[in-house]
Amino acid sequence: MRQKINCIILDDEPFAVRLLNDYAQKTDLLNIIYAGSDVYEVMRLLGSENIDLIFIDIQMPELTGIEMMKMFNKNHNFIVTTAYAEYALEAFDFHVVDFLLKPITFNRFYQGVQKFIQWQQAFIPESQMDHLFVRSDRKYYKIALDEIIYIEGLKDYIRIHTINDKIMVLENMKDILEKLPENRFMRIHRSYIIATDKIKVIEGNRIQMRNMDFVTVGETYRKPFSEWIESSGR
C-alpha cells in the first residue's frame, strides 16, 4: 500500500517554484498540495490541511522562511531551499530535515526526500509503528505492517509478500528485521521472516501462511520458534 507525502513548495522566485514543482512531480511519493509564493495561503493550509513536509525559501519579502518556521515548527517538518548558506545554522534550530543550497539538482532534491522518509520512520515508537517505508525502482513504498505476510531473502534483495502484492527491495534480511517490531515479526530461516499473526498452520518444520504459501523453519531457528509457540499458548 502506498500513501503520498503531502507537501508544500514556498518560494518567491517563480523559476524556483517551477523547478521544485517539476522535481516533486517526478518523485513518486510526493503529493503537492501547493506550489507558489503566497505566504498567507501557505499559513492557511498549515492551519487547516494535513501537511507532512514544506520546502521553504529563506529570503522572502513579506515573511521570511525563518519567521515561518518559528511559527509552525512544532507541528511541521521543513526542507530549506535557499541560495544563502549562512542561514544553515539558524535553520537547524527548527524541524529542518535538510538544507538544499541553490541551484538545486534533482539528485540533491531526491536525497532530501529520502532523508525525510528515513527521519520520519526513525522517530516512530515501535508500539505505534503501523507501516514501513521501502525503496524499490527509485520509488518509496509505504507498506502497512498489517498487510505483510512474510519476507523472503534473495541474495542482495528481499521480496516482501503482502496481501495484494510482492515488492522487490534492495535490502538485506538483517537490516529489514531491525526495522520491524519484534513482537509482530520473527525470523524463522536465513531466507524467511514471517508475520506471526499471519500463520495459518504449523506442521513440523513447515508453516503455511495465510496466503497459502509454505515456508520452512531453519535448523538454527527451530529452538527459539518452538519456545515462541510454547509461550504463545500460555
TrEMBL record:
Entry-linked Gene3D superfamilies: 3.40.50.2300, LytTr DNA-binding domain
The keyword Phosphoprotein is assigned to this record: yes
Domain Response regulatory: 6-117
Keyword Iron in record: no
Short name of one Pfam family: LytTR
Annotated ranges, domain HTH LytTR-type: 132-231
Molecular function GO terms recorded: DNA binding; phosphorelay response regulator activity
Coiled coil stretches, renumbered: none
Residues that bear 4-aspartylphosphate: 57
Family matches, as PANTHER family: STAGE 0 SPORULATION PROTEIN A HOMOLOG, TRANSCRIPTIONAL REGULATOR-RELATED
Protein name per its UniProtKB record: Two component transcriptional regulator, LytTR family
InterPro entries listed in its UniProt record: CheY-like_superfamily, LytR-like, LytTR_DNA-bd_dom, Sig_transdc_resp-reg_receiver
Keywords: Phosphoprotein
